[in-house]
């Protein structure tokens, strides 16, 4: 039923009316075709366009076919999908299906799967994506979901802007209570942490508002938001790793397939259950791309192998002292530069010159200062990104800081990172602001009580499950292997005065270590702030939000 594309017309006219070589093409589609296609594309007559109103499986199949044909993408959709009777296109992207149409919808899905098999490979699955919401998951499970660095974009409920003192319908606070947590010590310890958090929220907020009164010109909204954020920042260390959170994930099919497989191999039963749930829901929107995630041929064997590797490596690790025995007696927060490349400057300069040279990578040479000036000088703000040449300088850090700070820094995905299991042996951070508010005693008693419970859970349930009761205030050890380009991004972003003091300190220390070994490479990171933070961290940011809201209101009027 498709109509062949029209033959391009050539009309070449100079500004003076004489012919030149300009080519003007006649419309590719007649009126009837345009009427069919306009719903699915942002335009029909320009070379750049976006797809819309198409299911993800159709987009993936369309692009996979597109890579094997000379036709335009819009022509492929018209000829091989819309006008192809066996495609079931109308059921998928035309009229919404009703219950008795599901057989037809399934036939259509099978058609698209055949297209993918015939024309696609694994990379095609990166062209179809989906949005997924995961609610009432523990913070531990959220970290496992967010650990996928490529192809998944997560957004998680904030401990800075959301209070965690709400109770469930059964009167208990919102923390994970899986059947595997059989220890009688778990729930009382979790309840005690939340009781302390809930008891301190209002007096902490009130005391902070007395200390930082509303300033002239500051809106009530901005002042209340900034002071509430300060109070919640001080108290977030009380929240256990089992605290329930919500997160949204957007990802492509290939990334989701691997995430499901990896979660299926996780040592926590909660994560294994999430793998099943994710697979079920994604099978409703991008079934062709996640079908192998848990199947008997690919997914399950891959997950089983992950389990075997983890268990074998655990057996080869030096044994830890028995649960309850002292393993170090606490450790101060620290940032150690474990490894760096002494040849970093030369490599960055060579990489910067390479695109402009006809020499091999190792041969271009130049004045280091002149090249770095040309490459990095003149950045007006941190959003003017450092160039790719900086990726040739690499650093490995070992960091000890509280789990809440790790939770914030874990969002940076353009690096290699891993952490050790949560426990209470490295000590915890007591926020100085709580000392000033005379609330330090309540805080310490609650987290030390949780530490006692953790030792009993570790003995009864093992190290992995005992993590659920560890408060966010306790230290964890992790490593970052990161290149200089990401150092610029991470440290310029995470040292802004409105940042949380805990992760701000880590970012500052990382940058100081880099500046010590590579001062010339570091000196252009002009937007790293090594000074003290704002006392009321969110005040300036909330004022900027008010300014933007006001500008929007003016535009609307």
What can you tell me about this protein's structure?
With 557 residues, the chain is α+β, with helices and mostly antiparallel strands. It folds into three domains: 31-120, no CATH class; 130-316, Alpha-Beta Plaits (2-Layer Sandwich), CATH 3.30.70.3180; 334-422 and 474-544, Gyrase A, domain 2, CATH 3.30.1360. The protein has helices at 31-37, 56-66, 73-82, 89-94, 102-119, 139-146, 186-211, 220-235, 253-264, 269-282, 287-290, 299-316, 344-353, 368-376, 403-409, 432-436, 440-461, 463-466, 484-494, 501-517, 519-522, 539-556; strands at 129-138, 152-156, 244-252, 334-340, 394-402, 416-419, 475-483. Helix 2 packs across helix 3, helix 9 packs antiparallel against helix 10 (269-282) and helix 19 (484-494) runs antiparallel to helix 20. The chain is built from 22 helices and seven strands. The relative contact order is 0.11. Residues 1-24, 97-101 and 324-328 have low confidence and may be disordered. The radius of gyration is 28 Å and the shape is globular. The strands form two sheets. It has a four-stranded antiparallel sheet. It starts with 30 loop residues before the first helix and ends with a helix.
What is CATH's topology name of the largest domain?
Alpha-Beta Plaits
**Helix fraction by DSSP (H/I, runs of at least 4):** 40-55%
Give the structural class: alpha+beta
Rounded average pLDDT: 87
Number of domains: 3
Strand content: 5-15%
Under the CATH scheme, which architecture of the largest domain would be assigned?
A: 2-Layer Sandwich
Spatial arrangement of strands, main beta sheet: 4-5-7-6
How many H/I helices? 22
Low-confidence stretches: 1-24, 97-101, 324-328
Assembly category:
single chain
């Amino acid at each position: 039923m498709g109509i062949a594309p029209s033959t391009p017309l050539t009309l070449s006219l100079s500004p003076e009316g004489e012919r030149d070589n300009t080519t003007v093409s006649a419309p590719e589609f007649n009126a009837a075709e345009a009427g069919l296609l306009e719903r699915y594309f942002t335009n029909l007559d320009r070379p750049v366009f976006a797809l819309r109103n198409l299911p993800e499986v159709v987009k993936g199949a369309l692009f996979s076919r597109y890579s094997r044909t000379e036709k335009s993408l819009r022509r492929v959709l018209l000829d091989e999908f819309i006008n192809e009777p066996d495609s079931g296109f109308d059921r998928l992207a035309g009229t919404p299906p009703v219950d008795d149409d599901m057989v037809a919808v399934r036939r259509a899905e099978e058609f698209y799967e055949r297209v993918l098999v015939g024309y696609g490979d694994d990379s095609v699955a990166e062209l179809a994506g989906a949005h997924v919401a995961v609610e009432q998951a523990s913070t531990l499970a959220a970290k496992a979901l967010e650990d996928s660095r490529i192809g998944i974009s997560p957004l998680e409920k904030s401990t800075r802007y959301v209070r965690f003192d709400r109770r469930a319908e059964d009167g208990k606070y919102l923390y994970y209570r899986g059947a595997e947590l059989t220890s009688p010590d778990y729930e009382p310890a979790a309840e005690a942490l939340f009781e302390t958090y809930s008891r301190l929220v209002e007096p902490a907020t009130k005391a902070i508002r007395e200390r930082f009164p509303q300033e002239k010109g500051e809106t009530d909204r901005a002042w209340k938001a900034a002071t509430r954020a300060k109070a919640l920042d001080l108290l977030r260390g009380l929240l256990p790793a089992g605290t329930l959170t919500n997160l949204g994930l957007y990802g492509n099919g290939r990334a989701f397939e691997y995430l499901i497989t990896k979660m299926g191999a996780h040592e926590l039963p909660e994560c294994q259950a999430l793998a099943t749930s994710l697979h079920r829901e994604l099978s409703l929107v991008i079934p062709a791309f996640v079908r192998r995630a848990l199947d008997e041929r690919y997914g399950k064997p891959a997950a089983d192998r992950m389990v075997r590797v983890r268990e074998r490596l655990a057996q080869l690790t030096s044994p830890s002292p028995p649960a309850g025995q002292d393993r170090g007696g606490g450790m101060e927060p620290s940032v150690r530069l474990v490894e760096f490349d002494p040849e970093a400057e030369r490599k960055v300069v060579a990489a910067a010159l390479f695109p402009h040279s006809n020499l091999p990578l190792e041969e271009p040479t130049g004045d280091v200062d002149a090249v770095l000036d040309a490459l990095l000088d003149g950045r007006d703000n941190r959003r003017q990104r450092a160039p790719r040449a900086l990726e040739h300088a690499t650093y490995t850090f070992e960091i000890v800081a509280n789990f809440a700070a790790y939770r914030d820094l874990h969002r940076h995905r353009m690096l290699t990172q891993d952490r050790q299991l949560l426990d209470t042996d490295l000590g915890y951070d007591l926020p100085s602001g709580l000392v000033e508010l005379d609330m330090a005693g309540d805080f310490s008693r609650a987290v030390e009580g949780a530490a006692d419970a953790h030792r009993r859970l570790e003995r009864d349930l093992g190290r992995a499950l005992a993590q659920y009761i560890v408060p966010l205030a306790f230290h964890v050890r992790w490593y970052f292997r990161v290149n200089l380009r990401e150092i610029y991004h991470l440290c310029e972003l995470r040292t802004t005065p409105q940042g949380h003091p805990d992760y701000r300190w880590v970012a500052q220390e990382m940058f100081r270590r880099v500046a010590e070994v590579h001062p010339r490479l570091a000196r252009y990171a002009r937007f790293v702030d090594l000074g003290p933070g704002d006392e009321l961290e969110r005040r300036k940011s909330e004022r900027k939000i008010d300014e933007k809201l006001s500008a929007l209101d003016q535009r609307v009027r």
